[in-house]
Amino acid sequence: MIPFISQLPKDEEITWITALNQALPDENIVAFSEVNPAEKKHCQLAIVANPNTELLAEFENLTWLHSVWAGVEHLMMSLANSPIDVVRLIDPTLSRAMSEAVLAWNLYLHRDMPRYAKQQKNKHWQQHQLVPASERRIGILGLGALGQASAKQLQQNGFKVMGWSRTAKKIANISSYTGNKGLAEMVAQSDILVCLLPLTPATRGMVNEELLAQLPQGSAVINFARGGIINTDELLNALNSHHLSHAVLDVFEHEPLNANSELWHHPDITILPHISAPTNLNSACKIVAKNIMSFRATGQIPKAVSKVNGY
Ligand code: NAP
């Protein structure tokens, strides 16, 4: 028996459990509420979607979790000192969805759409100079599964692409930067800065006043990773002083974004409701099934998220 533990609405949870059972016909995947105390003792693994981590303590023999989400920041923070391994979803379908979102919102900024939308409101007819894509410099924070797919997509669409990560990368036609010095170098050349880092103690609040000040005048920021990586007050200052031209925000410290948040009304902010790369049920179930079948056959837990690095 494998418990499915989530905070999803009941109907969504049933959809997941049904699809997982179809993908894993030799397993019995059931909702947390259906596992009795004796059965809990025998569960070695659980499938999770942003679960209430307090519930995990009820499974004394749990050795690993498979998340059906790619982002597992909340789990990693709660389980930092626990022996339970966390395997996250790494799914090319998700990476493709993210790279499409990154391309879409880069084009939105690159082709000055926020500016033309403001002009339309004022019935103002004015043409601005078109910057060729080859001269538009995009800096990506994070060159992991999502960052690399996005970097390649942008590069294929003619943009000049740079990426910053903890370890150096060799990707054709994409400049790789590492360390504080590399960060400063990349940021100073980024007309659009895209955040695709995980939220960890090292990245929390790192897009702050100091980093934003290093961006070129008139540049823009896209955050598709986690809200906690950006210092929102300092982002607002940078927008209000017109050092930054625009920010596209898909993720927030508290979601849904509070109705009273001033971000909703800011003329230079585009708010998205965490939609840049939703998990695809079918592809995710296939990947989870493959990993669990491999575990049953070999006893080896699939590659888990690093407790040391927090991602
Ligand atoms: P990933 O494969 O783990 O990649 C993370 C990247 O960030 C890696 O390149 C890593 O460097 C770099 N990194 C981490 N900590 C760093 C640090 N302190 N300094 C420099 N670089 C650092 O993660 P992913 O699958 O690409 O996902 C990234 C994040 O996207 C997730 O954690 C999640 O928060 C978010 N996400 C958002 C959505 C959405 O719909 N908005 C959907 C899915 C995921 P190395 O390569 O050197 O390790």
TL;DR?
With 311 residues, this protein is α/β, with parallel strands linked by helices. The protein is built from ten helices and twelve strands. The protein has two domains: 2-91 and 279-298, Rossmann fold, CATH 3.40.50; 95-271, 3-Layer(aba) Sandwich (Rossmann fold).
How would you portray this structure in words?
By secondary structure, the protein is of the alpha/beta class. Helix content is 34%, strand content 17%. The protein has 2 domains: 2-91 and 279-298, 3-Layer(aba) Sandwich (Rossmann fold); 95-271, NAD(P)-binding Rossmann-like Domain (Rossmann fold, 3-Layer(aba) Sandwich). It has helices at 10-23, 37-40, 73-78, 92-110, 113-121, 145-156, 179-188, 209-214, 232-240, 281-298; strands spanning 2-6, 29-31, 45-49, 64-67, 85-87, 137-141, 160-164, 174-177, 192-195, 219-223, 244-249, 269-271. The protein has a 7-stranded parallel β-sheet with strand order 8-7-6-9-10-11-12. A 5-stranded parallel β-sheet has the order 2-1-3-4-5, with helices on one face. The longest helix has 19 residues, at 92-110. The structure holds NADP nicotinamide-adenine-dinucleotide phosphate. Residues 70-71, 73, 142-147, 165-167, 196-200, 202-203, 224-226, 250-251, 274, 276-277, 311 line the site of NADP nicotinamide-adenine-dinucleotide phosphate.
